[in-house]
Amino acid sequence: MWGETATAFARCFQPNLSYLPLFEGHTWYGSLVTELPLFPLPNIVVFPGMTLPLFIFEERYKRMVRLCVEQNQRRLVIVLAKQGASVSDSGVHEICYDVGSYADILSVAENPDGTFHILTHGQERCRVAVSRSESVGAGHAPLHFTRNLPYPLARDDPNLERLAAWDALEVFRSYSEVFFPTEVLEQIESALPDDLLFQASFICANLRAPAEARQRMLEAPSLIARFGAAQETMQALLKAHRRDAQDAGGALDEEGAEPSSGSGGTPQA
């Protein structure tokens, strides 16, 4: 799962990534495109700058990839599937959230068995509003499409944003010291983007937090709020880690304690 280690995300976080040869002309028509393929995924929340490789094996999503290539249209929408929902279900309103992310396909490799390996690059967030569903054959769930509804992240005073980023990064460094191997810490500093939007993405995608918590960060109304949500999540994770460590230490103390004499003397410490 993405976010397991900073090393993995540093390798797959490229905010200024150039497109690979795939679509003729590399054209993205922006607001001229009225609907986009919808791709619900479990445990995945995509943030701007995040590069995500995917294995495509379901019939409806193989159809999605073929459509993108045939129509010279690289963009789709990735959205988090709700916990306990099956992405094989035909209904979509019940299984996924109302806010997802644009993702641009960078490369496509078709396998001999008709499956695909694709590489996608996370863009800004968007709203999810299913416009239609397309059948891909009997016995298969349909491919859903969503209206093209940008949902820009609100931006505030740059000085306030920098302050929020500074605070969140300080907590992130403390978080990294606890949850990441020592050799990863220097890589985090070297991989940290300069742009504040991508700094927030770097933090959010690296947290070992439930997908629902990362979804709240994606849905935050502003960049400052996104930094704040990430900071609150990290502080909660650090607090839980300290509590678990204390509980484990107490259990070890009890196991290693000398047995009491039972004579009513001073209790053994």
Order of helices and strands: HEEHEEEEEEHHHHH
Largest sheet: 8 strands, mixed
- Principal-axes geometry comes out as globular
Helical content class: 25-40%
Low-confidence stretches: 1-8, 258-269
Work out the number of β strands. 8
| Amino- and carboxy-terminal Cα gap | 44 Å
Strand content: 15-25%
Helix count equals: 7
Keyword list:
269 residues, alpha+beta, Archaeosine Trna-guanine Transglycosylase, Chain: A, domain 4, 2 domains, 8-stranded mixed sheet, 7 helices, 39% helix, 21% strand, globular, disordered C terminus
Would you write up a description of this structure?
The chain is globular, with a radius of gyration of 23 Å. The chain is an alpha+beta fold and 269 residues long. Mean pLDDT is 84; it is low at 1-8 and 258-269. The chain has 2 domains: 6-150, Roll (Archaeosine Trna-guanine Transglycosylase, Chain: A, domain 4), CATH 2.30.130.40; 158-250. The chain has helices spanning 6-11, 59-70, 158-179, 182-191, 196-206, 211-219, 223-256, and strands spanning 35-42, 51-56, 75-81, 99-110, 116-127, 130-134, 143-147, 149-150. Strands 1, 2, 3, 4, 5, 6, 7 and 8 form an 8-stranded mixed β-sheet that branches. Strand 6 and strand 7 form a beta hairpin. Helix 3 packs parallel to helix 7 and helix 5 (196-206) runs parallel beside helix 7.
